[in-house]
Structure formats: C-alpha cells, structure tokens
Amino acid sequence: MCSPSRDMNATYHAYGHSLVADPSANVSPEAAEKEDIVYKDLDNDTIVNTRKGIPIYTQRRFDLYPDVSGEGG
C-alpha cells in the first residue's frame, strides 16, 4: 500500500503506514506515517503452500463470467 500524493484538502486523508503482509495476513513490518522504506524477505514456499489451500482455480464459474485469464483459449 502506498500514499504518494496525500491531499490534505480532500474529504478523505490517506495516511502512510505502508506495510507488508504474509499470506496469513500477519503484518510485518509496517512503516510510520512519515516517509519510510520497508523491507521484507518473502518465503516462496509459504506463499505456494498458502495458495494451494485457496482453490480459486477449481471453483471458477465460467458459466457466470467469461475466462479473461488467457489460459483457457
């Protein structure tokens, strides 16, 4: 998440606090409101294993919406 151009005159103010969340939604680290850089090493095995538990590819409903992924032809 990022807030590159906050408009303090707008009705909604988007504040900093950019963050990195793992596939289980654990947040680490989180930036402050001020300008900051956030680093996080991601474990690809954790990402792959988490995605295996989310069956989005077997539960798609092409009878309700078209296949726009380009994989189906």
Automatic annotation (TrEMBL):
GO terms for cellular component: mitochondrion. InterPro entries: C-N_Hydrolase_sf. It comes from the Eukaryota. GO terms for biological process: asparagine metabolic process; glutamine metabolic process; oxaloacetate metabolic process. One of its GO terms (molecular function) is omega-amidase activity. This is Nitrilase family protein Nit3.
